[in-house]
């Protein structure tokens, strides 16, 4: 493979939400890029985030246009920093995705997970995440396009998972008790006929591992990072390099996960 000059390699922008999820995504990008870029090499990466408190205040007030405004402002900052496309390693913030205005394309986390679920031949999957994610249609829309059924936890389980994420995982606290609680929910998914479970919160991979799970995992954080690297890898030769945002969108749409979110988006 003929490599482009470093400055011509697509620049990844990260709209961050929580520290734990953004850090895991960033580490995955840096470590797994070595597979095709060489030792210690990775694309240029820029991260921007507003205060998590700002997001929580808007989410708790059910102000999704306000969330979208912050995401749009982050996207513009990243575009001005040179990002060619954007990822957001935060599932909850994707609830405002359809309202975001951005000058560069985004990879959608749920579309990325749905594509991987289809590739692996899953038919019925469970979902773990915040209440905003579990009770929204963001995952079911993309999974249904692939012919995959989505199952969410029971109401009391959703309440417990919401508490765990907000008060433990985001703060970097991971206990064996919490691990057992999450494993019990996954086991109920298994007995309900699920053949996989989506870790639809970017902190969940830090406490739920494939070794301890009753079902195969669809890790939204790492899958999003890998999808971003696929976009970089497919443009490693001069013939494949895409200059315009319109062409970038066309390349990404071939994967079914890349979308142009702009002032014209509706």
What are the main properties of this structure?
single chain, 266 residues, alpha/beta, Rossmann fold, 5-stranded mixed sheet, 4-stranded parallel sheet, 9 strands, disordered C terminus, Asp/Glu_race
Task: Describe the fold and architecture.
- There is one protein chain.
- With 266 residues, this protein is an alpha/beta fold.
- It has one domain: Rossmann fold (3-Layer(aba) Sandwich).
- The chain is 45% helix and 12% strand.
- It contains eleven helices and nine strands.
- The strands form two sheets. The protein has a five-stranded mixed β-sheet, with helices on both faces.
- The longest helix has 17 residues.
- The C terminus is likely disordered.
- Keywords: Isomerase.
- This is Aspartate racemase.
- Belongs to the aspartate/glutamate racemases family.
């Amino acid at each position: 493979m003929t490599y482009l000059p470093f400055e011509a390699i697509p620049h990844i922008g990260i709209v961050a939400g929580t520290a734990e999820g953004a850090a895991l995504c960033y580490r995955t990008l840096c470590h797994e890029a070595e597979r095709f870029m060489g030792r210690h090499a990775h694309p240029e990466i820029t991260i921007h985030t507003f205060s998590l408190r700002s997001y929580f205040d808007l989410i708790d007030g059910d102000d999704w246009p306000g969330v979208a405004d912050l995401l749009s402002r982050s996207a513009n900052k990243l575009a001005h920093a040179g990002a060619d496309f954007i990822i957001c390693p935060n599932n909850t913030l994707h609830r405002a995705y359809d309202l975001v205005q951005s000058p560069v394309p985004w990879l959608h986390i749920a579309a990325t997970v749905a594509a991987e679920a289809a590739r692996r031949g899953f038919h019925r999957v469970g979902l773990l995440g915040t209440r905003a994610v579990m009770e929204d249609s963001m995952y079911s829309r993309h999974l249904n396009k692939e012919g995959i059924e989505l199952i969410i936890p029971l109401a009391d389980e959703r309440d417990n998972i919401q508490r765990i994420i907000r008060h433990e995982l985001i703060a970097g606290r991971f206990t064996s008790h919490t691990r057992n609680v999450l494993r019990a929910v996954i086991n109920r998914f298994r007995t309900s006929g699920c053949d996989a479970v989506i870790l639809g919160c970017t902190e969940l991979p830090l406490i739920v591992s494939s070794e301890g799970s009753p079902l195969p995992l669809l890790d939204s954080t790492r899958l999003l990072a890998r999808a971003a690297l696929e976009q970089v890898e497919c443009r490693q030769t001069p013939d494949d390099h895409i200059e315009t945002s319109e062409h970038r969108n066309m390349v990404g749409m071939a994967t079914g996960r890349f979308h142009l979110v702009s002032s014209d988006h509706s």
